[in-house]
Amino acid sequence: MICHGVPNLKFFDDYLSIEGKKRGGVPTGYSFRDKKRGWGMNARLDLRYLSGKEKSTYIPARLTSYNTLFLDGDVYRENCYACPYARKERVSDMTIGDFWGIEREHPELLKQSEFDEKKGISCILVNTQKAAELCEKLSDRMYLYESSFMKIAKKNGQLDHPSTESERRNTVMEIYDKSGYDGVEKWFRKKYKKQIIMHRVYNAIPRKLRMTLKNAIKK
Fold this sequence. Notes:
Blueprint: H1 9-23, E1 26-31, E2 42-48, E3 54-60, H2 65-71, E4 94-98, H3 102-105, E5 122-126, H4 129-138, H5 149-153, H6 167-191, H7 193-204, H8 207-218
Antiparallel strand pairs: 1-2, 2-3, 4-5
Helix pairs in contact: 1-6
């Protein structure tokens, strides 16, 4: 898989605990890439309450401390920043991942009913003859379209190099060691206050209009 990095499990568990307390329930499940509202960065948190009621809450990633720090590469394990597998040369027969940026690299595909950006579009890197033969066998079960490594790698930087360790990582980890995830949450709310406001406004705009504006800006 195309992997950006993996945070510490305890760090994630502590984040879930904070979210549960904040929302008055017990976390029972979490999805980083829930597609009910489209392909992208929407997370889904499943909660169970004392009454026995269960509810799912959808949270845009940039409105949460954990997902923001994850996406910015600020909370990965130390060895992730020197990962020997984040490179063009792959050790597997096949590599899979999200085809981020496909709307710019292959706009013609989005006009075809077989490829639905809302549901997500994946990329497959064929690294060996064995993988090529497997793709051939699956061609009647999947919608396959030829692309290139260069196009896929534009928005998947870990196909060229590991994630870069930022200066913020030390700050976040020091706060976490001293004050737990409560401290990280408070720091995030203060440090990212403007971003949170901007993303709340952005996510209030209907998805179709957001995509139109996004494409217009890129042009």
